């Protein structure tokens, strides 16, 4: 029996490489839109099997030992999604289809199931199936450098953008595509604040130009102020305990900057028309800015088999 399900008028799709990427990079944005009634769909491309383990008693789950970290991280991701209020989460092509490739240049890049080795059209096809079901108006992923150069982040970008091309032919592509970003002014402020700190994450960095990320402020398209959700983002990050130790500099910055650090996230616009904005650079404060309100007119009903 097929049960027709109506999704909310506003639908947001996020494509991330590993469990924890969603919380660190877009956690407050996800929580904000979930709390305001939008349908938030998170697609994670791998299980994060090659991640470091910061919980000593779980060390033998590592790839070189029992190789069970990926399965453990499924549970961490589920807990993080609960903290963010996100109920629609999927793994690209189902859990375990694509493996964490590890950092660029490592032998793990050559694993036969490594996401870095995935057939682009096949992987994009899995994402198109989700787009066809959910009909998101907005998608978030990484830029062509994967924000900081990790092969799985780069591949997530390639897969997401190829999926947009394929979905456009089928009439189910998102109208707007954003890339995660960090304004240079924010990075410079952070580096300045930590100059005299003993817990300085930028200690080995002489200038912002040496970082593998950082976007000129005039290229930023949107600033999402979700400071009301900063506690949800921190809870989601803490759910990823194997990857983010309690002593992480991320929490140190949060302790100094509080809701501002945890709750404000930035994006560049890669596809679509920029909506109305404010401030010196006209930054949007809503990713749906400029889009027509209401239901997508050519959206098909969603069957029970496709509802997550």
From TrEMBL:
Gene Ontology MF, one: N-acetylglucosaminylinositol deacetylase activity
Residues binding Zn(2+), per UniProt? 18, 21, 153
Quote the catalytic activity from the record: 1D-myo-inositol 2-acetamido-2-deoxy-alpha-D-glucopyranoside + H2O = 1D-myo-inositol 2-amino-2-deoxy-alpha-D-glucopyranoside + acetate
Q: Does the keyword Hydrolase apply?
A: yes
Q: Does the keyword Mitochondrion apply?
A: no
Q: Which Pfam families match?
A: PIG-L
Q: Which UniProt keywords apply?
A: Hydrolase, Metal-binding, Zinc
Q: How is the cofactor bound?
A: Binds 1 zinc ion per subunit.
Gene3D superfamilies attached to this UniProt entry: LmbE-like
**What is its EC class?**
hydrolase
Q: Give one GO biological process term.
A: mycothiol biosynthetic process
Q: Where is the signal peptide?
A: none
Give the source's domain of life in one word. Bacteria
Quote the EC number.
3.5.1.103
What InterPro entries is this protein classified in?
A: GlcNAc_PI_deacetylase-related (IPR003737), LmbE-like_dom_sf (IPR024078), Mycothiol_biosynthesis_MshB (IPR017810)
Instruction: Name what cofactor the protein needs.
Output: Zn(2+)
* Function statement: Catalyzes the deacetylation of 1D-myo-inositol 2-acetamido-2-deoxy-alpha-D-glucopyranoside (GlcNAc-Ins) in the mycothiol biosynthesis pathway.
Hey, which family's this protein in? Belongs to the MshB deacetylase family.
Q: What is this protein called?
A: 1D-myo-inositol 2-acetamido-2-deoxy-alpha-D-glucopyranoside deacetylase
